[in-house]
Amino acid sequence: MWSQKKYRGSAKERVDLCRLYVEYDGDMDSIMESALCAEIDDEPRIRGILQSLIDAQKIPALRAFTHESAQKRRNRKRQVEMEREEAEARQRDMGISSEDSLSALIKRRQQSREQKFSSLMSHLEQKYREVEPKKKGAK
Question: pTM higher than 0.85 for the full model?
Fold first, then answer.
């Protein structure tokens, strides 16, 4: 079974990072977006892996990577923080916690659908209920 712990630091991760580095011409924004299990806190680790591969001459030193400005790094981190805050705000608005967010959302939607279905069925029952014909009195 695949797991994050086994992937991080593995040879497979190094191969994937090499592929992304070459594919995106050393652009760390694109590499960080595309790398599996990568969060903004992993950037120094990923940068270290790529730099060691450059030092070992296994991948070429590309200008976008070697001359990335500190401002671009700060912008990337700021963007991730803004997205994280927005996601947390949406979770609060929906009334779910991060631990069980998906399961809670699924359960809530299922309950809502059950209520709507039940309401629809009740309405249809009332609308199409057979009305017993009125008996005419004996003359």
Answer: no
